[in-house]
Amino acid sequence: MKKAMKGNISLITGSVMVAITFSLLILSFIWTPHDPLEVTPDDSFAGISSKHFLGADKLGRDILSQIIVGSRVTLLVAALAVTIAMTLGVSAGITIAVASRKLQAPMVYAVNIALAFPAALLAIILAAVYGASTLTAVSAIGLATAAAVAQVTRRTAYGILASDYVLAAHACGASTWRIIRKHVMPNLRASLLIQASAVVSVSVLAESSLSYLGLGTPPPAPSWGRMLAGSQQYIFVNPLLAIWPGIAIVIVVLGFNLVGDGVREVFDPTLRRSDS
Amino acid sequence: MNIVVFGARRLFLFISSLVVSSAIVFSMLRLLPGDLAQAKLGIQATPEALATLRHELGIDRSLIAQYWDWLSHALHGDLGISILSGADITAEIAQKATVTVPLVIMASVLAVLVSIPLGMYAALRYRRMDGVATSAMSQFGIAVPTFWTGLLISTFFAVAWQVLPAGGFPEGGWSEPGIAFKSMALPVFTLALGQGAVLMRFARSATIDTLQQDYFRTARATGLTRVQALRKHGVRNAMIPVISVLGMQMATLIVEAIIVENVFALPGIGQMLLQDVNNRDLLKVQGIIAVTTSIVFFVSFLVDLVLGFLDPRVRQSA
Description:
The structure holds two protein chains of two kinds.
Chain A: H1 2-5, H2 9-30, H3 63-98, H4 101-116, H5 119-130, H6 134-161, H7 164-171, H8 176-212, H9 224-233, H10 244-267
Chain B: H1 3-30, H2 36-41, H3 47-57, H4 63-75, H5 89-124, H6 129-143, H7 146-160, H8 177-211, H9 214-221, H10 226-248, H11 250-263, H12 269-278, H13 282-310, H14 312-317
């Protein structure tokens, strides 16, 4: 691990940002400067002070406390969406890769159709039918990103299945299941790690956008997207309110993107000299 | 693979995607708990009145019959009338499209025009500070949510400096071109910024790839400078991934347009869609989603055709 970190700026910066995010989450269960929902009319639009480190919103609710607690919704949605996307996507991708040629074509077609379907439209449909909730946001994001995961997994798995060591395993009489377990899965590990971090970034962005549009987790639970939506009305009064939740979102998304890039660098030595 | 066979295959994929996705959307929206007739007449309605209304709305028939009915009308450009407002859905979408379509097109063009030179610049100087800074900027651009960019941009340009309107669109639409373009400026810029950041990464890695090719070395050996050689051989090679990614990004782009419309209060398809979702005007939601997904599928079909025509390798891998 230490060796992997050395000189890998993406991985180091990314890990720090991810660590900050998880510290916020842990902190939200232990301590917040104020009750995030506590309404104190006297502090309406309070600026930065020793009482409110990042100021307060129209109702006088403490911004820092709301941001700390808001990490829960963000990370909960991301964790659930990544679970759905990886479980569905990886099993579909591997199934397609090992399926017979005749079955492959229609399955690849299905994945292609799913790929072209926009995630947020799915969330909008689900919200129209069931009413907006954390559950509709999670299902929409998870299902929509699963197609991309399936696509990448299938392509990577093809490459592995075409290798000599899989041919040798076949010759030794290994079953398909054994080949998947002993050869395909271990070699997919790096690609899966990179995809999972990409899915987390996408989910956090999607969740904040849905919350902003009022299609995510309903109030009163604080969420970064909804805080930004609320700040928009008062942008003439207190523009600072539109800054903090945005920074929080960028730290999470950038963190996971950088970790993904860093991991890619570790597993693909050809990238190490360039900085991509 | 023959270009005709390739085109026919892509056409088949395009049509089947349309049918499958519209069927899925249709059935999802019909699985709604409670029914329309009840919602319209209230809980005190007599069973007879309910049955008559259900018959009038055609919702007493089987799902497949209803879907077939909707699809055959939709193919003739008739998406029905809004259950709440009674307005013609097709006409309303067409009217709102005069805002959304120019927004998406202008933003895509701007994103392509900015991302290719910037990506090539970042590639040329990729071990120097300014090159690294350029690609760090694109990393940052990808991580910033569109609506936040919009909020910040309107804070600076509309609130602090008051040079451009923070939102809205003239009543008369494009008949007042001056005001219309002014109200479009910030939304287009916001949308292009996010897209450009994504496209720039692809332009950059395509150019880095070109720099290591033999033909590039040959061009350099004939006496061209790095920039001259890139102008001759790099631009096209950077275009191919950028165009194909733009095609794949169409879905994201339209969704971001919905968000941007809401940030800047632009009366486009996106704003209408959100209102209809809140009003549970399901037939209209269905119509809007059918139109937007058709556009997404159509653009990706076109992009594939163009790429297949330009690059024989694309035809092979299809």
